C-alpha cells in the first residue's frame, strides 16, 4: 500500500487491476488484503491514494472516520468473513470534521465542561455524532497541550483505534491471535503522501 501511495504522490500511479479481466475474475468473490476506515472526504479515496485496484481494499468511509455499530460490524465482517490481515484507520490533513467539531467547541463552552477526560471512552454531549467523537479527541489533545489541527487529526486516529479495539471482541481477539494488525495513518492533501502513525 505504501509503495502504491509513493507512486500516486509522485504522479506515477499505475492504476492496477482495473481492467475487464480483473472485474470478471471477482464476480464470484473477493479476498482483499486490507480493510480501511477513512474519512468520507471526496479528496481522500483510499483506492486512488494507495494506487490499488478492484478487490484490493475493503473500505468503510464516514465523516471524520467516526465509528458506529455499522462501521464496527463492517470491520468485523472484513476480519471474520474476508480474512483481511490489516486494518488501517486513516485520517487526513485539513479534515472538515475536525474543523466542524472545533467550531462547535469554541461556540459552546459548556460542551467542554461536560466532557470528562478521566474516561478514555468519554464523548461530548451533543446531537452530532461527529462533534461527540471528534470533539472528544480535540479535548483529549488539548489536555496534553497539543493545539494544532494536525495534532487533533492524529489524536483522533489514535482514539478511534482505541475505541475499535475496546468495543469489539472480534477485533481484540484477531489482534491477540496475530491474525490482524491495526495501523493508524494520516493522508496529507498537500503532498499526496500517507504518514504512518505510531502510538
TrEMBL record:
InterPro entries assigned to the protein according to its UniProt record, in alphabetical order: Carbonic_anhydrase (IPR001765), Carbonic_anhydrase_CS (IPR015892), Carbonic_anhydrase_sf (IPR036874)
Name of a matching Pfam family: Pro_CA
Protein family: Belongs to the beta-class carbonic anhydrase family.
Entry annotated with the keyword Lyase: yes
Protein's UniProt name: Carbonic anhydrase
Entry binding sites for Zn(2+): 39, 41, 92, 95
Enzyme Commission no: 4.2.1.1
Amino acid at each position: 500500500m505504501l509503495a502504491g501511495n509513493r507512486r500516486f504522490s509522485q504522479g506515477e500511479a499505475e492504476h492496477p487491476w482495473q481492467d475487464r479481466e480483473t472485474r470478471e475474475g471477482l464476480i464470484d468473490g473477493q479476498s482483499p488484503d486490507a480493510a480501511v476506515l477513512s474519512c468520507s472526504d471526496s479528496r481522500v479515496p483510499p483506492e486512488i491514494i494507495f494506487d490499488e485496484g478492484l478487490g484490493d481494499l475493503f473500505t468503510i468511509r464516514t465523516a471524520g472516520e467516526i465509528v458506529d455499530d455499522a462501521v464496527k460490524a463492517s470491520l468485523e465482517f472484513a476480519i471474520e468473513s474476508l480474512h483481511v490481515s490489516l486494518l488501517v484507520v486513516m485520517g487526513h490533513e485539513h479534515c472538515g470534521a475536525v474543523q466542524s467539531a472545533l467550531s462547535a467547541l469554541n461556540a459552546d463552552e459548556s460542551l467542554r465542561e461536560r466532557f470528562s477526560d478521566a474516561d478514555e471512552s468519554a464523548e461530548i454531549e451533543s446531537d452530532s455524532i461527529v462533534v461527540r467523537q471528534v470533539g472528544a479527541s480535540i479535548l483529549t489533545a488539548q489536555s496534553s497541550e497539543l493545539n494544532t489541527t494536525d495534532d487533533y487529526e492524529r489524536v483522533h486516529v489514535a482514539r478511534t483505534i482505541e475505541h475499535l479495539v475496546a468495543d469489539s471482541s472480534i477485533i481484540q481477539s484477531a489482534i491477540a491471535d496475530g491474525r490482524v494488525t491495526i495501523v493508524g495513518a494520516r493522508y496529507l492533501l498537500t503532498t499526496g503522501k500517507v504518514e504512518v502513525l505510531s502510538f
